Amino acid sequence: MILKQEVQIGEDETTGELWDRLKVVGGNLLIKTLQEIEQGTVKREKQGNEFTLAPMLSKEMAKIEWLNKTALEIKNLVRGLNPIMGAYSFLNGKKIKFWKVDIATDEEIVIENLNFLKNGTVVLSNSKQGLFIKTKDGILKILEIQGENSKKMPIGDFLRGNKVEEFEVFE
Question: Which of 8, 83, 100, 169 has its C-alpha lying 20 to 30 A from 115's C-alpha?
Answer without folding.
Answer: 100
